[in-house]
Design a protein that fits this description.
Helices cover about 75% and strands about 0% of the residues. By secondary structure, it is an all-alpha fold. It has a single domain (about 1-275), classed as Orthogonal Bundle (MetI-like fold), CATH 1.10.3720.10. α1 packs across α11 (about 240-270) and α4 (about 65-100) runs parallel beside α11. The radius of gyration is 22 Å and the shape is elongated.
């Protein structure tokens, strides 16, 4: 309850959460708001916003832009959440092993992490999707593959900070195994910065997915915001709404997630909370 009260005192975090809840609600309600397939023709091509049955207009093939945005929210949120969960799982495992055991294990795992970080993340994502094929699973895998190194380094730093603390050493002296010490004593005390970083990783994943779809490397069977912006770039002067509305959707979603992440950081980091509370 105390954490919730601290979060509610952060107007930016509350506003971001409200925006995010609206976006999630629209994504869930997409089949009820627009029962027809977003790829189907809904009217005449190039209809401007506020046309009959087309609140945000239509594209060059007569598809409903509003339907595309709502269904695109499902794709972006699904990819963002799934790829972030995979990245957190990999990053926490690598960072926990490296930070807890140290020595050669730490050196080996950190060299692997640095290897991934030497390659620009977006370039690596393009290579992976282009090689494996532009499917939903491959896009999620590619984004997770470029997102886990920062989480691994953060987890390692937290484990290095905590492994020599008195309560951890007491658990070791009591004969508890490494798995028990990690899961019961170290990880719960290291989880706060991981949660904050993970929430911000969702925003980065949505941006990467949008960029991949913009370049034609998204799943061709799924309507996405990046695809909508990319397909409309050649007619932006003739039909501005085709690229502006999905672009605004990307902007608002990423902004909302970042605001929530900032609010979580204030809530879960007591030193920052106390400092800003004065």
């Amino acid at each position: 309850m105390d954490s919730l009260k601290i979060f509610l005192r952060r107007p930016a975090g509350v506003i971001g959460l409200l925006f995010l809840m609206i976006i999630i609600a629209l994504a869930i309600a997409a089949p009820y708001l627009f029962p027809d397939d977003p790829w189907d023709m809904a009217g005449a091509p190039f209809q401007p916003p506020l046309s009959e049955d087309l609140p945000l207009g239509s594209d060059m093939l007569g598809r409903n832009v509003a339907a595309g945005i709502v269904y695109g929210a499902r794709v972006s949120l699904t990819i963002g959440l799934a790829s972030t969960l995979a990245a957190v799982l990999i990053g926490v495992l690598v960072g926990a092993f490296a930070g807890y055991y140290g020595g050669k294990v730490d050196d080996l795992l950190m060299r692997v992490t640095e290897l991934f970080q030497t390659i620009p993340g977006f370039i690596l994502a393009i290579l992976l999707v282009a090689t494996l094929g532009p499917t939903l699973r491959h896009v999620i895998f590619a984004i997770a593959a470029v997102s886990w190194p920062p989480l691994a380094r953060l987890t390692r730093a937290e484990f290095l900070r905590l492994r020599n603390r008195e309560f951890v050493q007491a658990a070791v002296c009591q004969g508890q195994g490494a798995l028990s010490v990690v899961l019961r004593h170290i990880l719960p005390n290291a989880i706060s910065p991981i949660i904050v970083t993970g929430s911000l990783t969702i925003a980065s994943a949505i941006l990467i997915e949008s960029a991949l779809s913009f370049m034609g490397l998204g799943d061709p069977n799924l309507m996405s915001w990046g695809f909508m912006v990319g397909s409309a770039r050649s007619v932006i002067r003739q039909a501005w709404w085709m690229s502006v509305f999905p672009g605004v959707a990307i902007l608002l979603t990423v902004l909302a997630i970042n605001l929530v992440g900032e609010g979580l950081n204030d809530t879960l980091n007591p030193r920052i909370s106390r400092k800003r509370g004065h």
